[in-house]
TrEMBL record:
Keyword set, alphabetical order: Metal-binding, Ubl conjugation pathway, Zinc, Zinc-finger
Protein name (Swiss-Prot/TrEMBL): BTB/POZ and TAZ domain-containing protein 1
Pathway annotation: Protein modification; protein ubiquitination
UniProt keyword Zinc present: yes
An MF annotation (GO) of this entry: zinc ion binding
Organism: Abeliophyllum distichum
Domain BTB: 36-105
Keyword presence, Zinc-finger: yes
Length: 364
């Protein structure tokens, strides 16, 4: 009696959401609906009448069942779709006719519809289910949906599940789904742990690369400030033939520029640098060398020792070592990448500003 009531309830829902309401052109003859010529049999014994032409055009698998040998259907034209609730089969049939699926239907039968769309090769429904399930991922259902995504070859959904697992693993490992996975699918558990380990390694590499990029950008900014100080002066430091006191206002890169000015003052007055015993002087010496490696016009450059460093490199047959050349490339690359992130008007303004600086210097 209970089974009969369940079948009756399913049948009422099928009638309420009849697939014929959105029947395709293949089910219409002379402007009228053709008679159904096949029946879909669900696990609960429910029979859903359908048109073979519509099913064959929407699903190549159903088309091969209809047109092929009758081993998958009886002589009466019955096609079994088993293993999922009868309501899910009803929604699936409705989609084959109308290509529509409501949010409520996706909420209730999304998992079953994804399995049906994969088995019967309905790509439009599969994409709809992939997006819908991705939007409804939770800590409680992510393990189940991950297993289904792997079985149904849904890589986008699989990756979304993996990321959610990786970011919320402490909470997910307490769920029943994870405990069941550990007991019944150790291979998938291993894949998840490997993904988490690789994700953590990628985060560490990204952090390290950002730190390195920040260091190279700071060196690039220091090169700009060094040329700025030695060309036109800034605050209390400037060329020997210019009064730096005229430039009393700080420049736009005050933090770097001020630190470099202090380093220059120390370099000029330190007595230990002759014997190479001062770390701060060594740092200044490296900055001057780095500027020389980057500078394209050493004969006109106002930065001290720029031309001398260039000549030394040319005279030395070995030239600069590989690590130093790599540092130079990284600094130049960091400056280029940073300039590309600036707004267009600011990128255009910087070359004009540099040109104006050289023009002012030439008039003096």
């Amino acid at each position: 009696m209970v089974l009969l009531q369940g079948n009756f309830a399913c049948e009422m829902k099928v009638k309420a959401n009849s697939p014929f309401s959105g029947a395709g052109e293949g089910a219409i003859i002379d402007g009228e609906m053709a008679e159904p010529d096949v029946q879909i049999i669900t696990s609960g014994g429910l029979r859903i009448p359908a048109h073979s032409s519509v099913l064959a055009s929407a699903s190549p698998v159903l088309g091969s069942i209809i047109e092929g040998p009758q081993k998958h259907r009886s002589s009466e034209g019955n096609i079994p779709i088993l293993g999922v609730p009868c309501d899910a089969v009803s929604v699936f049939m409705q989609f084959l006719y109308s290509s529509k699926c409501s949010e409520e239907q996706m909420e209730n039968y999304g998992i079953h519809l994804l399995a049906l769309s994969h088995v019967y090769l309905v790509p439009l429904l599969k994409r709809r289910c992939t997006r819908g399930l991705a939007e409804r991922l939770t800590i409680e259902n992510v393990v189940d949906i991950l297993q289904l995504a792997r079985l149904c070859d849904a890589p986008d959904l699989y990756l979304r599940c993996m990321k959610l697992l990786s970011n919320n693993f402490k909470a997910i490992e307490q769920t029943e789904g994870w405990k069941f996975l550990q007991s019944h699918d150790p291979l998938l558990e291993l894949q998840i742990l490997q993904f988490m380990d690789e994700a953590e390694s990628r985060k560490k590499r990204t952090r390290r690369q950002r730190q390195e990029q920040g260091l190279y950008l700071e060196l690039s900014e220091a090169m700009d400030c060094l040329e700025h100080i030695c060309t036109e002066g800034c605050m209390s430091v400037g060329p020997y033939d210019m009064d730096p006191s005229k430039n009393t206002s700080p420049c736009s890169k005050f933090s770097t520029c001020h630190g470099l000015q202090l380093l220059i003052k120390h370099f000029a007055a330190c007595k230990k640098r002759v014997n190479g015993g001062c770390l701060r002087c060594k740092r200044m010496w490296q900055l001057l060398r780095l500027h020389s490696s980057i500078c394209d016009s050493p004969d006109e450059c106002k930065v001290p020792l720029c031309r001398q460093f260039k000549l030394k490199v040319q005279q030395d047959r070995r030239g600069e070592d590989a690590r130093w050349r790599l540092l130079v490339r990284k600094v130049v690359s960091a400056k280029t990448i940073y300039s590309l992130t600036l707004p267009k008007w600011k990128r255009e303004e910087e070359p004009r500003t540099t040109q104006n600086h050289h023009e002012i210097r030439s008039f003096k």
